[in-house]
Amino acid sequence: MMSDSELPLFTEPAGGVPAVMDSARGLQRAAEALAAGTGPVAVDAERASGIRYGQRAFLVQLKREGAGIWLLDPEALGSLDLIQEALGEAEWILHAATQDLPGLAELGLKPAALFDTELAARMAGLPRVGLGAVVEQLLEVRLAKEHSTADWSKRPLPKDWLRYAALDVELLIPLRQKLAGLLEEQGKSEWAAQEFAHLCTFTPTVVPRAERWRKTSGVSRLKSPRKLAVLRELWEARESLAEKRDLAPGHLLPDSALVAAAEAGPRTVPQLLAVPGFHGRAAKREAPRWLRAVQEGTRTKDLPGKPSSTGTPPPPRTWKDRNPEAFRQFRTARNRLARRAEQLKLMPETLLAPAVLKQLCWTPPSVLDPEHIEQALVELGARPWQVEQTSAIITVAMLDPDPLEDL
Q1: What burial class does residue 333 get, using C-beta atoms within 10 Å of its C-beta: 0-12 exposed, 13-18 middle, 19+ buried?
Q2: Where is this region: Disordered (predicted)?
């Protein structure tokens, strides 16, 4: 078999690089063509993560047999309800669906059924699951990767970028066929179907805006409520300006600068601009805004309390002292599930999400028997195939965990 570097480079879609549809007439043409096509629909979206505010899609790519590839500009078109109607009950093929589904949903696009080629590759036990790697392993061609982090909000989009975007959907249909065959050979088709059905209901976890400042990188360095209040005001000032200007917050000020300013408590603009991280254009131009935020945090009587309880367990590394029995149960179950995953040619996190096992061991059912463990797994979101493969292992591990010295 050829090495990755020897594989032919796939450089052009079979039908050429299509133009971007950015008008009502173009959208109508795309909808009519896709509705007349047959079979599943390859779907992808390009964002401007780290450049623009939020995670919205700036380009949507679709391909269907008999319809060809269509590139749509959501910024110009707005709602894509016409496309949703055209696709009807057709299965979508995506790679790493959870990355694109939220942005597509904002445009009115939601799948009735889907096939995630990344998840399928994980379930088939492939060693690498990025799109390029899976294409190389199964289709024996290479895809160019040079524009994956480009600013897709740019207009007009360069021809090379459009070629890259079109190639992202060009091979998804044959890739799906290869992966479906692998899953069938391994007896995992039903497992994958359950996972894909679950993905259709995916919605990202949304942290309330009033609490999102607590996710600032480095926040743990700030020990006093007063410094946390300063950080909160700085974060809110940055977030409001970022939203207004449609820029990623980190383009205005990095998290490290917010934390450093909250730590230093500058009283004047020169002191503020001496804080590490306050050296870019937005730092200097908006210095009065940032200083006002520091002052508001310094004066406010509304000091942050402890974070709202999310009901999630503490990190398992702390369990040994806080709850030794739960620690033994968790480590025993995790080790045994890892062995089972290896037998099934799965990654442990595919066999069962780590968060599910942690929650189950930290807040176990009142009765430790197969029936109650199965019920708890279902309530925590495990799919039927996962319950079938893991419940007995977890039950035995919780009833008779290994001694601490063996963990």
Answers
A1: buried
A2: 295-322
